[in-house]
Amino acid sequence: MNDKKEIREVRKAHRLDEERLANYLKAHLDNFSGSLNVRQFGYGQSNPTYLLEDLESGKSYVLRKKPPGKLLPSAHAVDREYRIIEALGKTDVPVPGVHLLCTDASVVGTPFYVMDQVTGRIFRSPIVPEAGDAAERAAIFDAMNATLARIHSVDWERLGLADYGKPGNYMARQTGRWSKQYRASQTEEIQSMEHLMDWLAANVPDDDTTTIVHGDFRLENMIVHPTEPRILAVLDWELSTLGHPLADLAYNCMGYHLPAGEKQRMGYMGIDFAATGIPTEAAYVDAYCRRTGRKEIPQWTFYIAFSLFRIAAIVQGVYKRGLDGNASASDAKTYGEMVKGLADVAWNLVEK
């Protein structure tokens, strides 16, 4: 949220009625002057994200909105993002401060919410080449691990989030949900995806632990302190719900099963863990287990395979929106080949 290289003019497909937005903010946002400058963040595959600058006060905010066009059922839920961030603001989970939720589509075309801009570092590459040394990199990964454990330790019932999802049977429901989402945006037949959907449905673990889950927990969705290995804010809560914590952990660990490299910006395979300071998968999982009091993780392969399958389904949705011309990311059309690659990795893990 403070990466100046990724702030640009608003894309044509995502332009807003800035005068109407300024008038709305003046009426609903405390101390807003009404003098507004709007730019767009270049990242964000799902919900267009904008930098709002109050030209008189100098204060900056971030606006997240649903994208334009026809959307998949239950996707792009900015109202859920707002609700969970507001609730977690009362806990030790680091999140931005939120100011307002607007469900009136007449203001900017779709519902949106406004939150604080948090100043810090966002690491786009999972191997964090910008880190000063191996010790700092190790500390950043440990802070990420601790943050995930915090999320999974939140008393969601006390926060009034008992209706934020359906406790229990999460993995079975998620397998069904993402199979349907994939079908809704499918553009070709991929054998490994077909095999995965069948295998996952037949091998759901019995463990029904329920916590808040982020749904897209990775380093890129966090703001790190400008100079310290400390997480200041976790972003992109669109996919959050009540669910199984190991789905979050496995998603966070997908990089151990994907190739490293700046081009892919995906994983850690082939890197020197000792030299980089990045923990091994076993060490990272062990640290999480110590923090959450979990003794073991049966069926770890299931959770990893599911996570790869789910991200493949999400990428397929981005690809389809790119073909339709309403994706948030300008490079969305290039995502098609990634779907098969992710599904192939997952199915190879299962077959082993």
Which descriptors would you attach to this protein?
single chain, alpha+beta, Phosphorylase Kinase, domain 1, 2 domains, six-stranded antiparallel β-sheet, two-stranded antiparallel ribbon, globular
Summarize the topology:
Layout lengths: L6 E2 L9 H11 L7 E6 L7 E6 L5 E6 L12 H11 L9 E5 L9 E5 L17 H20 L16 H16 L5 H12 L8 E3 L8 E3 L6 E4 L6 E3 L1 H8 L20 H4 L4 H12 L7 H25 L11 H16 L1
Antiparallel strand pairs: 1-2, 2-3, 3-4, 4-6, 5-6, 7-10, 8-9
Overview of the molecule:
There is one protein chain. The chain is 38% helix and 12% strand. The mean pLDDT is 91. It is globular. The protein folds into 2 domains: 4-116, Phosphorylase Kinase, domain 1 (2-Layer Sandwich), CATH 3.30.200; 134-351, Aminoglycoside phosphotransferase (APH), C-terminal lobe (Aminoglycoside 3'-phosphotransferase, Chain: A, domain 2), CATH 3.90.1200. The chain is an alpha+beta fold and 352 residues long. The chain has a 6-stranded antiparallel sheet with strand order 1-2-3-4-6-5, sandwiched between helices. Helix 4 (170-185) runs parallel beside helix 9 and helix 5 (191-202) crosses helix 9 (300-324).
